[in-house]
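During the second year of the project, the team shifted from modelling isolated chains to modelling whole assemblies. The rationale, set out in the original proposal, was that interfaces cannot be judged from single-chain predictions alone. As a representative example for this report, we include one of the complexes processed in the last quarter. Its constituent sequences, exactly as entered into the pipeline, are reproduced here:
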Amino acid sequence: MPAFDYKQAADIRNALKRHGVRHLFIGKSGAVLLGFPDTTQDADLFVDKDQANGRALVVALAELGFRLTPDQAGEIERGKDFIQLKNGPFDLDLVFAPDGIERFADAWERRVEIEGFLVCHPDDIILSKEAANREKDRESLPRLRAFRDYWKQHQGKDNPH
Amino acid sequence: MTDSTSREWLEEFEAAAQRPLKTRLDYSFIKTYKPVMDDAEFRSFETMEDYRRWCEEELPRWLGYARL
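Output from the structure prediction step:
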């Protein structure tokens, strides 16, 4: 499978927008959208855990080409905390309860919008990585924090959506 | 973080800010095979704790998914 690219990110953005799915890009893919110069493998979406939102997401995913069984669709609708999809045109992680972020509504209030992409605020991306406390994040967190500071200086505001 | 690291990172952030979003995305994603992780088409976990524990018990340590 080829690496994720702009077109696929735009396909997600457009399909989720068409179906009114409340979501935010999170993780390093979110940071890259904000301008963080680094590499990553997958796209991660923080999705509002709400059954109607989950149903809309299942429709959008089918439209994008993900092949979901009825059971898998049910798990997405229900909003299990973490779902890994490798049965579509690209790999996608769905996170309904990221570490370090109490409620979707809080992250939504702080969201950043870039060319129509809805992205977690860098503070939230960092909070979730700090709370996950994984070995793979240990080296990238100091640079991500430095990027957050740079980003804030150049945005000139904390909540620019 | 040393002064030279800080300066180097700042230069990287500034260079990235000059690139269009499409270029940033097209060059930021890489695909390499991750043993175990990439061997199933669908996985789901009731809680994040279940997922973190699965990563620690099932994935090779060198992938870096274990908690510190």
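Residues 55 and 65 of chain B are 6 Å apart (CA to CA). Helices of chain B lie at 3-18, 21-28, 48-58.
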